[in-house]
Amino acid sequence: xxxxxxxxxxxxxxxxxxxxxxxxxxxxxxxxxxxxxxxxxxxxxxxxxxxxxxxxxxxxxxxxxxxxxxxxxxxxxxxxx
Length: 81
Ligand SMILES: [Zn+2]
What we know:
Blueprint: H1 33-72
This protein binds zinc ion.
């Protein structure tokens, strides 16, 4: 779907304006409200999954650092009591 004013491709049908020329798009060019809501929910879900993946990644990195640290000290922590 292209902008009626600048004829460039509209990258999003959620936005009320054209991202290229800034013209306000007629309502019929936009998705119905429930469709927009659905897309927003999907995006929120993707974002949540991305955050979770990042947290997991950081956790694994920290675990690796801890592992490396305990490897470099030749005495296992339990033996230090
Ligand atoms: Zn435009």
